[in-house]
Amino acid sequence: MSDELKTCPSCSSEYGYQLSDALYACPECGFEWSPTEESKSNAVTVIDSNGTLLADGDSVIVIKNLPVKGSPKPIKAGTKVKNIRLVEGDHNIDCKIDGFGSMALKSEFVRKA
After folding, report:
1. 39-85 pLDDT, tens digit each
2. How many domains does the chain have?
3. How many other CB atoms are found less than 10 A from the CB of residue 39?
4. Nearest Cα to 105, choosing from 50, 52, 71, 64?
5. 100 in the same domain as 68
6. Contact 108, 49 (CB under 8 A)
7. 42 Cβ contact list (under 8 Å, min separation 6)
8. Residues 65 and 37 in one domain
9. Are 72 and 58 in contact (CB under 8 A)?
10. What residues make up the domain containing 93?
11. Which DSSP string corresponds to 55-113?
């Protein structure tokens, strides 16, 4: 067993302790959890312009011309973007676009391919 303390996902107490090899417990609220389940529950939920749920690794299509700061040309509507990564924040899609490089896009301007 480890002396490492984990934050409880239920009550946010800092005193979660390891109960067994695969289980942690919180002394304040009594909640028990598995660290592997915890990482799955913290996944980012992102929905495209049509209401379709997006996941890491999906391909999307840009639905309108998007101006790019520092570039003379916009990202054209219809551009296909492969292998996206979902992140927290206002621009919730990280990707690489041919001719532009790494970009952060808003999910409201894309649809699932």
Report:
1. 554 567 899 999 999 998 999 999 999 999 989 999 999 999 999 99
2. 2
3. 9
4. 64
5. yes
6. yes
7. none
8. no
9. no
10. 46-112
11. -TT--EEE-S-B--TT-SSPBPTT-EE-S-EE-SSSS-EEEEETTTEEEEE-GGGEEE-
